Amino acid sequence: MSTTFHNRSAEAYDQGMGRWSQRLAAPFIAFAGLADGERIIDVGCGTGSLTFALPQAANVAQVAAIDYSENFVEVARSKNSDPRITIERADACALPFADASFDRAVSLLVLQFIPDSERAVAEMCRVVRPGGTVAAAVWDTSGGMTVQQMFWDAAVAVDPTLATARGEFYIRPMTQPNEMETLWTQLGLNDVKESKLAIQVEYECFDAYWAPLCAGHSTLGKVVIGLSENLRNRLKQALREAYEGSQPDGSRSFTAVALACRGVVPPTIKQL
């Protein structure tokens, strides 16, 4: 499996996006559904934001978490003390589990980084029993992520050559409204529903927003560390002005919206 995810370090991820994926986990679980005794597969577990929230939401029988990044797997394993949870490195497009092994497959903020995301969803359907649920969520990058839009507007103003990268960022797999719903339907899932989930992301000050970007993690961080020192300083100033909004520096809260989709696996799943 290839991936477009820029994984600089697990620590940088937790400092930046990781804490917001933890906050998104609860509303996503409520949308995806969960019941006592279920066997769950978490596809693209990262450092465990969703993985560890699942047993807190219901008395599940099993959580099998997989991720393509070895350092994420190592960090998630180091956090785990629940014998019901197993965490291993695996390919989302070739899951190492038999057909109908799970009651539910879930994936949080991962599909947009998998070029063959259709294959990954098909694999999730394969390993879930008929009548089980397949659910996923991705950030609504083109319409619901204020902090990311703020970044790209400032970045392109400072360096117009980044316009192409901005366009590619906004059209990543599964991030357009109804895109997941269409795929779920094409795969033959029943009771398909796509919805939006919103959380608030907060920063204590501008430096709390800027520091994870300077760590170079994620797509935005990769852009920052790829700039010359002069352009990086100009981008920092432009972002500071956008963040502060002519007000004193301090805490800010931004809305972050995710697109979520779920569906029920039929007796016979379609093949791509």
The major beta sheet can be summarized as: 7 strands, mixed
What is the gyration radius calculated from CA atoms? 19 Å
Output mean pLDDT. 91
- Helix share of residues? 40-55%
Strand order, biggest sheet?
3-2-1-4-5-7-6
The name of the CATH topology is: Rossmann fold
Shape: globular
CATH architecture classification: 3-Layer(aba) Sandwich
Counting helices, strands and paired strands, the structural category is alpha/beta
The number of helical runs is: 10
Low-confidence stretches: none
Number of spatially distinct domains: 1
Strand residues, percent = 15-25%
> Which series of helices and strands comes N to C?
HEHEHEEHEHHHEHHHE
Please identify which CATH superfamily we are dealing with.
Vaccinia Virus protein VP39
Describe this structure in words.
There is one protein chain. α2 (54-57) links the parallel β1 and β2. Helices cover 40% and strands 23% of the residues. α1 packs across α8 and α5 (146-158) crosses α10. A seven-stranded mixed sheet has the order 3-2-1-4-5-7-6. The chain has helices spanning 10-32, 54-57, 70-79, 117-126, 146-158, 163-170, 179-186, 206-214, 218-226, 229-244; strands at 39-43, 62-67, 85-89, 102-108, 128-139, 190-203, 252-264. The chain has ten helices and seven strands. The protein has one domain (10-264): Vaccinia Virus protein VP39 (Rossmann fold). It is of the alpha/beta class and 272 residues long.
